[in-house]
Amino acid sequence: MSELNVVKNARTTDSVRSCPLRHEGRPGLRIVPDTGRSIGPGRLGESPEREVTMLILIGVRNGEQFLEPQLASLLASGVESWTLWASDDGSSDGSVALIERFAEALGDGPCNVVARRGPQQGFAANYLSMLADLPDVPGLVALADQDDIWLPKRLSRAAKMLNRLPSSIPAFVYGRRFDWGPRPGRMRASRMPRGRACFANALVENVAFGNTLVLNGAAARIARQAAPLAEGIYSHDWWLYQLLTGAGAICLMDREPSVLYRQHAGNVIGAQGSFVDWTKRKVGVARGLYAARVQAQLNALERCEDFLTPENREILRLFVSARQAPWPRRIQEMRRAGIFRQNLEGNIGFWGAVLLGRI
């Protein structure tokens, strides 16, 4: 599939590429000024006052090679008005200039771009810095990765699902994606989860891929309040899945794949679908890598315990206790907590790791 052909009924990337770059008065671009105030990690100042129907968060670092088609695909998202927060985490390539050209191509229309400086502490910290700076009363909030391509109507479908619920109830949409490339014609839809999305599942795996997530305002407020407590996490989207399910948010699945998830050598976290990837995961579990990632997530969750429902606080307590318990109490407490993974292979691997003390 051509990168540009997926962006139907939208301005093409040619309009982005051909725009002259001016350093002042660029329509569509808001470079947030440095006010000298201490207002959170990575933030340069207050965002412009305006009604935002959809806020899109994208972390950027040396993404010039793939960023252009991703930005163009936002135009076909099915939402007429959005603001893009582009947080550059110290790029040394042309990513920032490309974002500026894209903003200028938007003109004075209903969409605009806010350029930010990331904290330069890793991809998870970059997204946490944006979540911590969300407005006090956020609207819908979507996450994007710099090297993917959104398929048409991704945001409009999510907005329609979320708008069926009362705005006071925390909820989020997650979905499937196409694992894509790098060879032409290589495209595979991600698996359908077999179980329900819930906290007992979120403690040991992430099915709410960040590049498919859309949060309603109530869920975004929880994320904003908890983000300053999440320092040191391994993965921001896994943490969001854990935090929001733990807080009792409603999980809505978009069964139609909504993103081309580009696979390339620079992926921080890839699709991990090959036999080689499977072997690397098992070796990583044996060496304690998986347990270390789980621990990093748990450290943050324990600091965020006040956001969890009483039932999920008890699940968290049992899980933490089970990880430190001798066998066979380890098995008993894991069973009491109801911990599970979404497929048979994952559950076999999980219980094997429990037996070996590698969780």
Topology:
Elements: H1 13-17, E1 29-31, E2 54-60, H2 64-73, E3 83-88, H3 95-106, E4 112-117, H4 123-132, E5 140-145, E6 149-150, H5 154-162, E7 171-175, E8 178-180, E9 187-189, H6 199-202, E10 214-215, H7 217-226, H8 236-246, E11 250-254, E12 259-262, H9 275-286, H10 289-303, H11 310-324, H12 329-337, H13 344-356
Parallel strand pairs: 1-4, 2-3, 2-5, 3-4, 7-11, 8-12
Antiparallel strand pairs: 5-10, 6-12, 7-10, 8-9
Helix pairs in contact: 2-3, 4-7, 11-12
GO molecular function: transferase activity
Region (Disordered): 22-45
Pfam families: Glycos_transf_2 (PF00535)
Sheet with the most strands: spatial strand order: 1-4-3-2-5-10-7-11
CATH class category name of the largest domain: Alpha Beta
The CATH superfamily name of the largest domain is Spore Coat Polysaccharide Biosynthesis Protein SpsA, Chain A
The ordered H/E elements are HEEHEHEHEEHEEEHEHHEEHHHHH
| CATH domain topology of the largest domain | Spore Coat Polysaccharide Biosynthesis Protein SpsA, Chain A
Overall number of domains: 2
Second rung of CATH, namely the architecture of the largest domain: Alpha-Beta Complex
Mean pLDDT score? 84
InterPro entries: Glyco_trans_2-like, Nucleotide-diphossugar_trans
Region (Disordered): 22-45
Domain Glycosyltransferase 2-like: 56-177
Pfam family, one: Glycos_transf_2
List its traits.
disordered N terminus; 8-stranded mixed β-sheet; 359 residues; alpha/beta
Write up this protein:
The relative contact order is 0.12. Helix 2 packs parallel to helix 3, helix 4 packs across helix 7 and helix 11 packs antiparallel against helix 12. The N terminus is likely disordered. With 359 residues, this protein is an alpha/beta fold. Helix content is 38%, strand content 14%. The chain folds into two domains: 250 residues, Spore Coat Polysaccharide Biosynthesis Protein SpsA, Chain A (Alpha-Beta Complex); 82 residues, no CATH class. The strands form two sheets. The chain has an eight-stranded mixed beta sheet with strand order 1-4-3-2-5-10-7-11, sandwiched between helices. It has a four-stranded mixed beta sheet with strand order 6-12-8-9. It has 13 helices and twelve strands.
